[in-house]
Predict the structure.
Amino acid sequence: MLVGQPKRWLVAGALVGCAVALAGCSTSIADLPIVGTPADAPARPKEPGSYLPVNNLPPDRDENAMDEATRAKMKAELAAARDRQAAAAAANAVPVGTPK
């Protein structure tokens, strides 16, 4: 009889855990009367929001986000960084067939 007792507790604990997990799916914590919502929270809309429009793109910009001088400077900096990394990788490269 003592061998069956821990097994019963294990099964009972698993059932309680499943019940709690399923109960958590059925309610929202924010809607519970004990927890409630903060006083400064905006009121919830009566109807849920609709899906965002898929094909509705924002209008094109009238001006560039970056002027040409800044763009050229950034391209030069990126190219220099790429060249430095390539040189460092080539210097640290181990030829094939040699032990590390």
Summary: Residues 1-37 form one domain. The radius of gyration is 31 Å. The chain has a mean pLDDT of 80.
